[in-house]
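Schema walk-through. Below, the input block comes first and the output block second. Nothing else is stored per chain. Lengths vary across the set, and this one has 418 residues.
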Amino acid sequence: MVDFDLFDAATRDASDAALQSVRDTGCPVVWTEKNGGHWIVSNYELVAAAFRDWERFSSERIHPEQNAIAFNNSKLPPCLPEESDPPRWHGYRRALAVILSPQASERLRGRARFWTEHYLDQVVAQGECDFVHDLTCPVPAAVTLEWLGYPRQDWQMFSDAFHGVSAYPAGSPEHRKASEAYGPVLTRIAEELRDRIASPRDDALTAIAHHEVDGERLPEDIAQSITFLTTVGGIDTTTSLTGAALLHLAQHPADRQRLIDEPGLLPMATEEFLRFYPPARAHKRIVAADTEFAGVEMKRGEAVLLSEVAAGRDDAEFPDADQFVIDRNPNRHVSFGVGIHRCPGSHLARIVFSETITAVLARMPDYEIALDRVEEYPDWAMVGGWSRIPATFTPSAPTPSAPPPSAPTSGTPTAGAS
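--- output ---
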């Protein structure tokens, strides 16, 4: 039994320390009475095992209003395919398997590079910017929303809504504005999917709208749920990871210089950024039936917290786990999850991240961050990130880029390619 409240820690350091205190008990599975009571699994081997064991640790909602994968955001609509288990999971997941495969994601690298250069061009001559608002938030949003096929006039509303609910304190004007935008966002998702049924296009919305399971097109509410999760998942998690990396490189100049001198090191460094700064810090699961796990008796319906942060700091899996090792190898982190619910957008996320970091190091190699003005998310329970990262650098001339195409050129399958 531990006195652990997931929502007490308002900063990354405090959240990391609270999870460390759980690991320091020496018990890899503990119980807390806080937030309705739940188990906490905190070592690498058991977190990975529980992620893989969907039969015992379910992602299905038992109660319609109770989120099965997060301890907050209970009012969100079901997030499919993650909030589902086999057998129905198979058909839902296939809606994303082709359009987010490694090959399909790689075809979007050019768009990730274009949007990175585009947003850098807006600020390089100024010699200062806010990395969050000027780069790490708009780039993943542009890549994701263009690939899906939303009209450009919707992009700001989507980006502000999904970023704002995490970036600003509950009750603040910014948070209220972001929360109020969820209704219009859901409306636009429904409208765009209906439009793709009537007029298929070469975009990901069309692929989802026309996806079939057992010869039947996805019901409208299921297609909307899959689209919602795909949209929100592509916008703010990469924002968090890129912000963490830019902060880290500002504070660790030796790591920054290695990436400048050895650009081929970036793929390996990306995995270490993911291990050390996981954007999704924890996931919830529901015990599907009375069971024993790691010597602990668990009851059906009990909630379980699987901590990616704690798993990533397990010395048994990662020697010197509390140290950032830029060329760590092997690095079998669980920051994208493992098992059937592994993040389907992980390939695209890595591409967007690597293009952004590469461009910043090429065009702003001497950037400095005003650490006393950096603002973190107000809540580090389930996700982490930064609301503001002000930076200065030597000004340079913009490099005009080609205008964006009128429609994504992603190679996304059209209707009937499900």
